[in-house]
Amino acid sequence: MRILNFSIIFLIGAIFLFSGIDKLLHIEGFVNALGNYVLIPRWMARPLALPIILVELFIGLSIFAPRTRRLASLAAIGTLAVFSAAVALNGIFGDRGICGCWFTITAPQSMGVHLVQNLLLLGLAWTVAVSCKEPAPVQEALASQEVLSS
Which of 7, 115, 116, 126 is the most exposed place for a label (fewest CB within 10 A)? Predict the structure, then answer.
């Protein structure tokens, strides 16, 4: 079970790191892809690009550290939910270009493939979040409360 859990953590971390680095290396293409989403006004594409990249890099790095793994997995769940909704709505109402997820690997894939990938990753991130124990400071605080109340 530990090998499976580590494999899931490694997969999520590697995907978010690769995606963030790929977007950073192809920032202009990513800005153009963001501008093609029906939910995002074109003028908002540039200001949104760097925060999205930083969130992906944060998730990709933080999921490897046990102390930040739960936070990173919860951030991954939220990010993937937003990305999935954006991809689905763009497919329904816009279909104005590429997804912008990973330029060097998945640019030619359809929005439907990206939606399925995002939902699978969301499910994997959920398993990581559920399997994480509370951070040590929370456990210590709970233990001290039990001592005080007895």
Answer: 7
Question: Residues near 56 by Cβ (< 8 Å), separated by ≥ 6?
Answer: 16, 17, 19, 20, 23, 79
- Looking at the chain, how many residues does it have? 150
Predicted pLDDT of residue 150: 53
One-letter amino acid identity for 8? I
pLDDT digits (tens, 9 = 90+) for 11-23: 999 999 999 999 9
- Number of other CB atoms surrounding residue 14 within 10 Å: 13
| Nearest partner of 35 among 25, 44, 22, judged by Cα | 44
Distance CA 84, CA 90 (A): 10
Q: Which among 16, 36, 26 is positioned nearest to 91, based on CA atoms?
A: 36
Find out whether 45 and 52 touch, Cβ atoms under 8 Å.
no
Contact present, 16 and 76 (Cβ < 8 Å): yes
